[in-house]
């Protein structure tokens, strides 16, 4: 294959999403970190065909077929390798040259070589100059980390690199094309583009140096200087640090940050999954790389106006690619470089653990823009949030956020739902709810009935007790009397395989205040068919767990409301937002399991 078509191969692999590609031929279903479906290469009734998004490969455990996206197209479309590559190049809008220009191929090869030699020159400069080493040491960058990233130093000479590259057989014209040298305004000669700067080589996933970034050691401007786009480097198609992350076998998450030093400092601090967007607003092609190399995508930009704007832009780009990013929010005035040097890996991990969903982040930003203590501010804020909720695809997620915003603003749930979904549908649901409310209010709360039913089961037989006690703790009971009964019964089973109900009744009746309630609990008989008791118990346990989660959520929302009114402890408020997100995930998981059953 020609060098030019090797370049096409690389671009195809960068843009190809194997899940999306295979999904055009096979109905795939998410299963953990992979996707599964019926194999398209042999007949089967039970899915044994697996697609890995992180590894960009497929494999069938039934017939043994496997490979990458190109081999899938070869097999499915009955094409040889070159024709399959042409097929995919056309699909992704990548030009295919039937007669590639050998001069272009030679020029690209030259650019890779000149960049590699320049990187060696800059690295040797770093080793031989104390000033840049001290600068890096102050920022916690050891010699080992510098070597890992290939960091270097450009001296303050105007032609140091030019002379070195000339000695290695490169021409000034090649240096200019690589973005390493410039032509003097008067046309009298050439000068080094990078001077008196720490150098950050930009390396692709095939370990080739494709460009450079440089940071000043003093206060001169520009603070950062980057290579221009060349035949081998386009900023919008690459991410700084991806070459190191691409070698990780564990790609659970990928963290997008703003600058070179953010990536390096995080790596030095033990966070080895950060990449930077090379000083540009995130592009769709960079978003595809994030999606490809991480199961979970996180964004951690600065909290200034420019950083917030870039974060919102990155969220929109990733949402277009069907990625739901989370946002790591750091204290105002701190970037990832500052934060990890001051708080270490554990401190940064806490921020990652409490990262906001993209929706929570947008709401968080809107709260800074509107005064929700005033009527107009509350109205405008609610309308803006309603637009965000309206764009969410999941009705369950919409319901969760409608409830959350209603709690935070004091605006009724019905009003927010009207704004999100339209008045006619909301009014219909509201009328239906009113019509059924009188019947519902006559029944005991679902969680109380579930707790009494479970106690009824464990009183019947030790086998029921063993099954229930392995799935639930006495603290999970929200009704204090039911909780007390459960604990007394548990203690009784420790002493005997059977329960003496009359002795138990006598013991509990000694409590004058709750004796009648205890008697009602002990007399309660679960009314279910004997054939489906396992399913019934699972449903009862799920009801109790669901109620406990809802109770925890209410307490957190109450605390958040108090913090919001006082305007104090913003860190605690963000932590609670993260806790709400985790509780919502657990609640949705319970609901999903109920729907499946």
Kindly describe this structure.
- By secondary structure, the protein is α+β, with helices and mostly antiparallel strands.
- The protein has five domains: about 5-90, Zinc finger, CHC2-typedomain (DNA Primase, Chain A), CATH 3.90.580; about 105-235, DNA primase DNAg catalytic core, N-terminal domain; about 240-355, 3-Layer(aba) Sandwich (Dna Topoisomerase Vi A Subunit, Chain: A, domain 2); about 360-440, no CATH class; about 445-595, DNAb Helicase, Chain A (Orthogonal Bundle), CATH 1.10.860.10.
- It has 26 helices and 16 strands.
- Strands 1-2-3-4-5 form a five-stranded antiparallel β-sheet. A five-stranded mixed β-sheet has the order 13-12-14-15-16. A four-stranded antiparallel β-sheet has the order 6-9-10-11, covered by helices on one side.
- The longest helix has about 35 residues, at about 535-565.
- It is elongated.
- The chain starts with a helix and ends with a helix.
How many beta-strand elements? 16
User: How many separate domains?
Assistant: 5
Radius of gyration, CA atoms, in whole angstroms: 31 Å
The CATH level-2 architecture of the largest domain is identified as: Orthogonal Bundle
Helical percentage: 55-70%
Main-sheet strand order equals 1-2-3-4-5
- Derived structural class: alpha+beta
Q: Can you tell me the CATH class of the largest domain?
A: Mainly Alpha
Spans where pLDDT lies below 50 across 5 or more residues: 423-444
Number of helices: 26
Q: State mean pLDDT (0 to 100 scale).
A: 83
Main β sheet profile: 5 strands, antiparallel
Portion in beta strands: 5-15%
CATH superfamily of the largest domain, called what?
A: DNAb Helicase, Chain A
């Amino acid at each position: 294959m020609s060098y030019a078509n090797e370049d096409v191969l690389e671009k195809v692999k960068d843009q190809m999403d194997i899940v999306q590609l295979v999904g055009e031929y096979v109905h795939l279903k998410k299963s953990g970190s992979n996707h599964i479906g019926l194999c398209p290469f042999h007949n089967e009734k039970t899915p044994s065909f697996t697609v890995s998004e992180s590894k960009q490969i497929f494999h069938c455990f039934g017939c043994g077929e496997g490979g990458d996206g190109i081999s899938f197209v070869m097999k499915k479309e009955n094409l040889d390798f070159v024709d399959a590559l042409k097929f995919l190049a056309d699909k992704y809008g990548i030009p295919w040259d039937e007669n590639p220009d050998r001069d272009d191929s030679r020029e690209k090869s030259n650019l890779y070589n000149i960049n590699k030699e320049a990187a060696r020159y800059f690295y040797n400069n770093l080793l031989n100059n104390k000033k840049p080493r001290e600068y890096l040491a102050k920022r916690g960058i050891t010699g080992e980390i510098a070597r890992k990233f290939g960091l270097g130093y450009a001296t303050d000479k105007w032609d140091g690199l030019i002379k070195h590259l000339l000695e290695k057989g490169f021409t000034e014209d090649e240096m200019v094309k690589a973005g390493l040298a410039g032509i003097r305004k008067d046309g009298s000669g050439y000068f080094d583009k990078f001077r008196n700067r720490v150098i950050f080589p930009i390396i692709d996933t095939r370990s080739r140096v494709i460009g450079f970034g440089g940071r000043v050691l003093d206060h001169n401007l520009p603070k950062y200087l980057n290579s221009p786009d060349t035949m081998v480097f386009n900023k919008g198609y690459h991410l700084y640090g991806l070459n190191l992350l691409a070698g990780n076998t564990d790609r659970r998450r990928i963290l997008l940050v703003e600058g070179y030093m953010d990536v390096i400092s995080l790596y030095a601090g033990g966070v080895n999954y950060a990449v930077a967007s090379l000083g540009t607003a995130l592009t769709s092609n960079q978003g595809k790389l994030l999606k490809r190399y991480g199961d979970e995508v996180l964004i951690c930009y600065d909290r200034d106006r420019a950083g917030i704007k870039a974060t919102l832009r990155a969220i929109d780009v990733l949402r277009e690619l069907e990625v739901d990013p989370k946002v790591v929010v750091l204290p105002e005035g701190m970037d990832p470089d500052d934060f990890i040097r001051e708080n270490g890996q554990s401190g940064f991990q806490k921020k990652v653990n409490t990262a906001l969903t993209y929706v929570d982040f947008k709401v968080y930003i809107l709260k800074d823009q509107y005064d929700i203590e005033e009527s107009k501010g509350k109205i405008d804020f609610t309308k803006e949030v309603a637009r965000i909720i309206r764009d969410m695809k999941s009705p369950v997620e919409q319901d969760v956020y409608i409830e959350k915003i209603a709690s935070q603003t004091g605006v009724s749930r019905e009003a927010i739902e009207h704004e999100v979904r339209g008045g006619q549908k909301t009014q219909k649901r509201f009328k239906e709810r009113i019509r059924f409310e009188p019947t519902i209010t006559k029944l005991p709360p679902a969680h109380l009935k579930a707790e009494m039913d479970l106690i009824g089961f464990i009183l019947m037989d030790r086998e029921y007790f063993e099954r229930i006690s392995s799935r639930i703790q006495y603290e999970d009971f929200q009704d204090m009397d039911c909780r007390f009964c459960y604990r007394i019964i548990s203690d009784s089973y420790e002493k005997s395989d059977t329960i003496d109900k009359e002795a138990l009744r006598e013991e509990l009746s000694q409590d004058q205040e709750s004796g009648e309630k205890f008697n009602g609990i002990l007399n309660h008989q679960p009314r279910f068919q004997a054939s489906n008791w396992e399913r019934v118990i699972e449903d009862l346990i799920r009801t109790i767990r669901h109620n406990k989660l809802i109770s925890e959520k209410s307490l957190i929302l109450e605390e958040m409301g108090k913090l919001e009114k006082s305007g104090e402890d913003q860190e605690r408020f963000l932590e609670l937002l993260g806790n709400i997100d985790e509780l919502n995930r657990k609640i949705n998981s319970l609901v999903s399991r109920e729907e499946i059953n």
